[in-house]
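**User:**
If convenient, please work through this fold.
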Amino acid sequence: MSSRLIGVGVGPGDPELVTVKGVNALRAADVVVVPVMDTGERGRAEATVLHYVPAEKVVRVVFALNERTDRERREAAWDTAGERVAGMLREQRSVAFATIGDPNVYSTFTYLAQTVGELVPGVVVETVPGITAMQDLAARSGAVLTEGTEPLTLVPVTAGSAVLKEALAGPGTVVAYKFGRQAGEVAEALRETGRLDDAVWGSALGLPEESVRSAAEMDGRPLPYLSTLIAPPRRAGGRGGKL
């Protein structure tokens, strides 16, 4: 039988937001891999996984999770991690990789799967969807992501604030990921496009240090890196006005 690599979305941090299918996949796998930075601290994925599987089943693998400037170092880290997981797949029937959010939305799992696919011919790659930070923030803040025919635009601010400004100038709700280090530029973009008062941001969702606040409270100081922003459009016309 072919070995299986399963990317399991474990949500934004609240252990109660892992799906039943996700928990079953983690428990059924022979090994559960969790990504860690080279500094070694426990990440959200690992903390969430340990609510459902014993520590002896969990393998920590170092990834260059925040490396964006040194491409050579980043790709070397991907290669090393991929080779380690490939070695596990040669010995085990199934390996699950736990990722925060969803494995198909800005996830390290994408790069891992590509690398492992080249190293282990015939490996079967599967994913189990997870709840995203924007869904969790919408639930915790009461923000409505979409109505009727509105589009929804998801922007990683690591791509630059210009991309965010362009999205905010359009229709529909804009969600920004990883904007904490550029909070000042984000606040200014919201102000320029008239979206500041209706926008909300959150970080550490579902964790003891959780923060969910109006974007109007941003004072320009950096926020946690994994902060999420929801900027809805102005909605008029009452119920069903966007249909």
About this structure: The CA atoms of residues 158 and 178 lie 7 Å apart.
